[in-house]
Amino acid sequence: MHQALLKCLASPWTPWLPFPFWALVIGLVYFANTKTLQEASYEMARQRGEVVFHLVQTMRYWNTRHGGVYAAETPETPSNPYLQVEEKDFITPSGRAMTMLNPAYMTRQLAELLRGGKLEIHLTSDRLMNPKNRPDAWEEEAIRQLRDEGKAEFVQVVGERFRYMAPLFIEPGCQKCHTSYEIGDFRGGLSVSFPVDQIDEITTHLYRQSFFTHFIVYIALSLTGMLSLIGLQRLIRSLQQERIERETIIEERTADLHQEIDRRKKSQDKLHYLAHHDELTRTKNRRWILQQLKQLSAEGESQFALLMLDIDHFKKINDRYGHEAGDSILMQFVARMQQSLRQSDCLGRYGGEEFLILLPATDAQDAMEIAERLRKSSSDHPYTLHKDSIWVTVSIGVASTQSNETTPEELIGRADQALYRAKHAGRNLSILWEESDEDEDTHA
Ligand SMILES: Nc1nc2c(ncn2[C@@H]2O[C@H](COP(=O)(O)OP(=O)(O)OP(=O)(O)O)[C@@H](O)[C@H]2O)c(=O)[nH]1
């Protein structure tokens, strides 16, 4: 989820996302505001119709309150043939003809004055006295709804005009002319109309301003969003870069650490190896062979033998062929010895050209046989030094345990004594230590 979000954020299209997003949001807000503006402009038009209606109504009320008003009779204001009241017409003492204008006649006069203008009014009824007041189709429907459904007003946009009609009811002063009506009876309606353009002139400006404002907000929000996302992408890239660098450093350091661990392990292994091996011949060293000897003794092993080997006249080899040749002879000698030994036998370099061989579970007789075999394996074939072949013999002192009482030190001492005898007896010999050797030593 986290990775998917990062991948999405890293896309080159991401910074453009605020544009469709804010287009949708601002579009919806603009649509809602436009709707409110439309309702406000409709309400404004309705109130305009209401104001005109009330103005005319007030004027009619004023007329009623005076029981009708008189005006000079002229071709534009002739005597009203539909008005049946006393003293409708009279001549003034100076001879001027006067005629009465009741509210309906006065309203019609006003309507005629306004006709063709931007604002028009029309007094109409479903029970006509003056055919000129005949309602048109829209007014007929308006009267029906005002009368039958008891509506307070009827408002509509018809074609290019906004139309408003409110009902008229019989009031006390009206019965002078409308004798057949009761007070409160529905009498008709007064319609007011004016071109929709008049409202549109105001609202179009508001629509334009609203559109402009919404557009500016849309661009500002989209650009801000775009810049923020570009900044976020850069931040993520730099953090990712930093993380990669840190991971690389960690990897490098881990590799260094592993190398160091390997190096230390190798040197530890080497130290461990050197602690138990002879560096030149790669065979076990003196310490290890002594440990083995002590271990065998400690475990209660009562029957084992020890051979002490010493290469004869080794100094001469060194002197004649050099120290390196001496080393080579030592290595060849060890290889020959190991070939002739059992797996359980342990060969170790005791020092210089001296070696010890520990033979577990071996009695004196077998030890002597092994010693002879070893001696012969050295003396029977020449050793090779470059192009030279040289003969190398070995003297061997053999000692074996006779009981648990023999200590490792005693055993080594005995093998050494036997070796000493072998050397003195002419070398290239295997000699077994015997009790009498000890006595000789004691006497010596
Ligand atoms: N090349 C070589 N020579 C060694 C090494 N260790 C000891 N030697 C030499 O071995 C020789 C031993 O000489 P000696 O103790 O006199 O014994 P030897 O010459 O073998 O005579 P005997 O033992 O009496 O037969 C010395 O010259 C040492 O320097 C080694 O690791 N390499």
Automatic annotation (TrEMBL):
A GO term from the CC aspect: plasma membrane
Cited PROSITE patterns: GGDEF (PS50887)
Gene3D superfamilies assigned to the protein according to its UniProt record, in alphabetical order: 3.30.450.290, 3.30.70.270
Catalytic activity: 2 GTP = 3',3'-c-di-GMP + 2 diphosphate
Keyword vocabulary terms for this entry: Membrane, Transmembrane, Transmembrane helix
Necessary cofactors: Mg(2+)
InterPro entries listed in its UniProt record: Diguanylate_Cyclase, GGDEF_dom, Nucleotide_cyclase, Rev_trsase/Diguanyl_cyclase, Tll0287-like_dom
One example of a Gene Ontology biological process annotation: negative regulation of bacterial-type flagellum-dependent cell motility
Domain GGDEF as annotated: residue spans: 302-435
Residues spanning the membrane: 13-32, 215-236
CDD domains in alphabetical order: GGDEF
Protein name, per record: diguanylate cyclase
